[in-house]
Amino acid sequence: MTALLTGLRRKAPGAPGGTRLSPLLRLLILTQLAFNVGFFAVLPFLSEHLGQAMGMAGWLVGLVLGLRTFSQQGLFVVGGALADRYGIRPVVLAGCVLRIAGFVWLGLAERTWAVIGAVLLIGFAAALFSPAVESEVARQAVAWESAGGGSRTRVLALFTVAGQAGAFVGPLLGALLLSVDFRTVCLAGAGIFVLVLAGHAWLLPQHIPGRERVHVRGGLGALLRNRRFLALCCAYGAYLLAYNQLYLALPDEVQRAAGSQAPLAWLFALSSLLVVTAQLPVTRWVGDRLALRRSMATGLLLIAAGFAVVALARPAAWTGTPGLLPAAGFVVLLTFGQMLVAPVARAWVPDLAEEGRLGLYTGALFSVSGLIVLVGSAATGMLLDSGLPAVVPWLVLAVVPAAAIGLLPRR
Predict the structure, then answer these.
(1) Rounded to whole angstroms, how far apart are CA atoms 252 and 245?
(2) How far apart (Å, rounded) are the C-alpha atoms in residues 312 and 275?
(3) Which one, 281, 286, 352, 365, has least CB within 10 Å?
(4) 113-125 pLDDT, tens per residue?
(5) What are phi and psi of 21, to 5 degrees?
(6) How far apart are CA 362 and CA 134, in angstroms?
(7) Whose CA is closest to 232, among 291, 284, 279, 292?
(8) Predicted structure pTM score
């Protein structure tokens, strides 16, 4: 959190004599912090609630989690296009309203259809507000870079730090409230978004200088012909599928090793703490040495290595503290891989996007990856329930990010 506040206060992170971040950019970065506090207070505990409290089969839990991701990332293209057309303020406010309704519904849901409806609403809410915020952060980062502030990836790294600071606080808050019940956790998440809605209704400007509104029609055809951009989307989708295993494969492994999912909150906290403390130095170090493609390739290799660590240790069937060490190794390697992949992918999009349609392209990046996660999560759930040797799912998951390196744009 200190790194985030320092980055917001000072001039250009790592760029001597650079310009200070604008008030709008600082607001958007803090927005990501608030979004993730509310979201991660609930999501890490959803898998256990569905499997244990509601008795869902593993494949159905995987499908529900995949539907949540698809309704979010899969529909980002809608939110991005709407942000291009109407501006970010109405889209962000509408998304906050839907997120509040979704969390309340999830807390009250007692049947499968109700859970599915709630998670779809929760996901679609983010499909509205997230691409609006992220595309504007990317646009402001490019302007900041042009003004001599330094590399745009450093602004986007600060944005990532804000998200992970929220992901650090959220699970700890959720774990505390889970001692009451899951419904309380959901209502607390809704309460956080009520505060976010009120704050943005007051602070978010009606019109942002330099942002021109465009018609919704006309941009999708050019996007679908943009092979370099689609290749980036597929590679990012492989990363996102791997990251989604924090909510599907990792809880299974923690339950096996510890006999409960209590250590899960601490592993999420470890991941977030690493990003909050190391993201900016890692981005600065990598940015001085590696091009965009090589940085993403290195990140995907680290993620693959994280799955391989668990796969290699799994036959030993360690339990207790020794049994949690491979899971911790997986979290550490996945997190360092994320530090390389996430800011670089966002920084790459403005170079590939059509003029005036950054929201559409930012949304499409997550829509394509969301479709990959939807299919991959259901397949992973089936794989985890298949009765195959425990090493097999983790080896398969290790292959996915490694293979994605070949999809990265060459130029």
Answers:
(1) 10
(2) 26
(3) 281
(4) 888 888 899 988 9
(5) -60, 140
(6) 7
(7) 292
(8) 0.73
